[in-house]
Here is the input.
Amino acid sequence: MKINRNYENIQDSYLFTNIAQKVRAYSEQNPRADIIRLGIGDVTLPLPEAAVTAMAEAARELGVQETFRGYGPEQGYGFLKDAVREYYAGRGVALEADEIFISDGAKSDLGNILDLFDADNTVLVPDPVYPVYVDTNVMAGRRIVYANATAENGFLPAPNRAQQADIIYICSPNNPTGAVYPKEGLAAWVNYAKEQGAIILYDAAYEAFIAEPGLPRSIYEIEGARECAIEFCSFSKFAGFTGTRCGYTVVPFALEREGAKLNKMWLRRQTTKFNGVPYIVQRGAAAALSAEGRKQCLEHIGYYRENARVISQTLDELGVWYTGGKNSPYVWLRCPNGMDSWAFFDLLLHEANVVGTPGAGFGKNGEGFFRLTAFGSKERTAEAMERVKKLLSR
Ligand code: PLP
Here is the structure.
């Protein structure tokens, strides 16, 4: 018996544990401190009414003999795939229903997709980024190289033709930096992937936060992407489904490598290892994509966007450099006075009782930066920013 020794190479993720420990220790010593948490990446508003109603109805259907359903199609019900297809068609991206695979969220699919690729591949990951991309590949023993995202390139690295890569991760709007690629930036990656024969794994989990017209919300808005990209998306941030769990992955029919069709491989993988998302949840997700559902989701997103605006405005007033906040729930700021990201964390916690996320937890280029999220309440976000203003203008 041999275990997968690659697990020994995964770096322990101390980030959120460390944050929790520091906040707990501070609260114990200062029991009256009113701490505001702007570190979380989870939503706080309740589910949109359209999704709740649809899920309640679906639950009742399952309790009636005539409308009971057991196992569903592994790749998702037609009604939800059609709803996703229409969602894309609304912004000019034509997909076939069978190019869309419904899942229990983007995180699972981002990890599971790696079943389709040999361990002997070089993976290019932006730094800093959502840690799942690195850890899932370390588990499989793949070589990882990094694309440096820095203040100089607006945290939007461009491809480096001297760098060989087989699998390329792009996250736009980015977690943690909130930076969003314009069309030309994505087109450069598509061209590079084609030259390399590589596949882009495009994480669009935050696409619904893009407000600026002209910024791409799907990689398939870029010509040639169907031959080189798989797209992952989620109802988590769009419809508040972080706990309800639903997402989808698009694997175009046109995507082939070494004579194999990736869509066929993914279908085979999913039908073998996955038994589908609950019917009730899929009904809720489809309702979120209905005209009324979208309106409700956009109201919630608008609420978070207003928080992001308040955070950004405060930083503007303080003259603090940042990315994100406009087309993303994340604001990524440079720690003032050259502080490192944990020192700034401590300062904010101790002097303003505000909790954020140190950038160093997202990769080496995150050192010296800090993430604030817009997922809190309006009142608490405004209060937190008042405190930050007071602290940093001292
Ligand atoms: N991708 C990114 C960039 C994320 O930040 C997250 C969650 O925070 C996910 C994917 C996970 O999405 P899901 O809830 O659909 O698994």
